[in-house]
Amino acid sequence: MVKIIIAIILEIISFTTFGQTTIKGKVISSTGEPIAYASIALKGSFQGTSSNINGEFNFSTNVKGEKIIAATCIGYQQCEKTIVLNGSTINVDFTLNPADSKIEEVTVYAGAFVASDEKKKVNMKSSDIGTTASALGDISAAIETLPGSQKVGESDGLFVRGGSGDETKVIIDEMVVQNPYFSPVPDVKQRGRFDPFMFSGTTFSSGGYSALYGQALSAVLALKSKGLADSTNTGGGIHLYGSNIFHVQRWKNTSLKSELIYNNLQPYNNLFNINQWIKSPENLNGRIVFRQKTSETGMFKLYTDISKTKLGLEVENTENLDVKLPFSLTNDNVYINATYKEFSKNEQWSIFTGVSYSFNKDDAFMDSINMNEDETLTQAKVIITNSSISKIIFKFGGELNDLGINGILGNNKGTIKEQLYADFVESDWQVLPKISVRLGLRHEHSNFLNENNLAPRVSINYSMSKKNMISFAYGDFYQSPNKKYLYYSDNKFKSENSKHYILNYQWIDSKRNFRIEFYDKEYSNLVKDVESSSNQFNSSGNGYARGFDIFWRDQKTIPNVDYWVSYTYLDTKRNYQDFPIAATPNFASTHNLSIVYKHWVALIGSMVGFSYQYSSGRPYYNPEKPSSQFNTDHTKDYKCLDINISKMTNIFKRRTVIYASVHNLLGYNTIFGYRYLPDGITRIPIKPLSSRTFFIGVFISTY
After folding, report:
1. Based on the domain organization, do 78 and 213 belong to the same domain?
2. Distance between CA atoms of 169 and 187, rounded to whole angstroms?
3. Are 193 and 223 found together in one domain?
4. Is residue 485 within a helix (H) or strand (E), and if so which, with residue range?
5. What is the pLDDT of residues 164-205, one digit of tens each?
6. Which ranges in 126-174 belong to alpha helices (H)?
7. Considering 96, 124, 140, which residue would you say is the last residue of a domain?
8. What is the number of domains present in the chain?
């Protein structure tokens, strides 16, 4: 089967289009720097290509006569030129100007990776996510290659600096996403629900994040969606897991996109003999994206996502190895996000208003045990920004979160009804030419916990030179305990708390970036299971996470190559949940290394790349050890090598991207942990469902 896939890939990359006119050139910015991944297209002909990492492009066409050729790239104004196609070679160069920005923001770097396509200093764009071999188009999987984050292959969420997956929140256009991943399945990590190419900016705050956000002990992944669509466009794709079709309609001040996605892993599982599934995952997903430009500076955005998923698989039985337990899940999910932003006439004031609605229903059974859960979250948020005072940007606002959860576990039923109010204020101040300060304060009130919390935040940035800067950040962060503790307990918990201390040094050159960051995170009020206590649960747990991150990215030294290396050292312990002593949680690795490499090969017009990830062994509970040695055994180290190739071409006179990847190419034997049988000796390894994963897809667009 591997030979067949390799043969298909070779056939794909050998595909060549022939035309009478060759168009080539280069795309650069107004400052003279090459622009990679810009779209170059002949208007009305559906033919075009993308620029490589050096901004160069080359494609052929059979079209003749006078045509308009356009170059576009997120964060830049579109540029058009008129050319005459006459069967010869034509040289066309483009210079793109930055898109208009209403407010020049003061940037404070400690704790945050800003990856916005609209900023000059870019660490990760949507195209980076799409071409990272280990990501396979999943935003969270791409973020796992950045420092501070680590690979946890059997649980959902982003695990950041010793924090669990539910300690990181996902934000879209300032609004919380309650269920950003597909519903959990025992020992199977789920993908995120959202397409990275719908976003113009990504900010990964691994600590010390803004006062505009809360309810996250560790980190925030903030995503900013795109504005008006570039043009009317129809397209779709087909791949090993399913297919999709979409249409975009663009008017002068309005755009509307509708998309239908269908995925079914049954053919793939049959092809590669993956037989653990009773019912292979099947998903139907519909999306609508509406944009309305209300004025020269105003924009209304509406995003709707509706999906239904069904699956079933066999799970190892810790009571009897000869009999496996059937697990089944039917999931219905709805997410609606509506936002409006407008500037005043002098552009010194702006107002943002947003409303979001999340609905998630899981009908799950483990053997005959009912594990149903219904969850809804309605959020409303207002942010007002003022920049009338020179070198100061002032933000203030508030939000309301209305959460309702009904859960069933066997004969037990639980209900959570929570209303959480928050108000916040934050200022970015350019104190001196080389010193900027961000001061923030967030207040939260939880009706369910009957508690008020004040969370101060501060960041200070000192620019030693144009390329060198040092930053410090401190923050207080609160989060309600996990819902599994709130369901069936009448206990009055406190909000869990973490305090972040961050020191950062960063060197930024043209297309090169070095960064080292030291961090200390102190936990308090964690949920603790105290067997000797009549109340059993309380908020006496505590812990810490300390270490440093190193990041290096280079898009300049090697021609046509973009690569980055990230490393995280983590020292963490907690005394919480049912831990008998302070110990390292089973999701934390001491050493984490990621290497991502991408190479534009002009000869075949393709981007090829690989990702390598390494994590030192994670601790696990061995019942043969005394409680004084709790979680002191470790799994084998995690290693994974992924490769991918993407080729842009034309099929049926339509712009086409052909993509192929292999996950865990070398077939490393991965073990995430162990489950022990009642005898305390026999154990079951927690492993992926398959040692390798393959993906091949063809995606066609009329633009």
Report:
1. no
2. 21
3. yes
4. helix 483-487
5. 999 999 999 999 999 999 988 888 888 889 888 888 778 888
6. 126-131, 139-143
7. 96
8. 2
- In the chain the first and final C-alpha atoms are separated, in Å, by 34
Instruction: Point out the domain boundary residue: 49, 69, 96.
Output: 96
Q: How far is CA 110 from CA 204, 219, 688, in A?
A: 11, 13, 35
Instruction: Decide if 338 is inside a domain.
Output: no
Q: Distance between CA atoms of 79 and 72, rounded to whole angstroms?
A: 7
CATH of the domain at 555: 2.40.170.20
Range of the domain at 354: 112-227+349-701
Place of tokens 């639980």: 414
Which amino acid belongs to residue 567?
Y
Helix (H) or strand (E) holding 8: helix 2-13
Mean pLDDT of the region 473-483? 94
Residue 243 has pLDDT above 90, yes or no: yes
CB 552 within 8 A of CB 564: yes
Q: Determine the 3-state secondary structure of 315 from DSSP.
A: strand
Q: Which two tokens stand for residue 618?
A: 């994670």
More confident residue, 13 or 299: 299
Take residue 522 and report the two structure tokens written for it: 């102190």
Q: Helical H runs in 292-345?
A: none
Pair 59, 155 in one domain: no
Q: What angle do CA 270, 275, 277 make, to 5 degrees?
A: 100
The three-point CA angle 107-110-111 to 5° equals 115
Write out the DSSP string of 590-610.
Answer: SEEEEEEEEEEETTTTEEEEE
pTM for this predicted structure:
0.83
DSSP assignment of 28-91, as one string?
EETTS-B-TT-EEEETTTTEEEE--TTSEEEEEE---EEEEEEEE-TTB--EEEEEEE-SSEEE
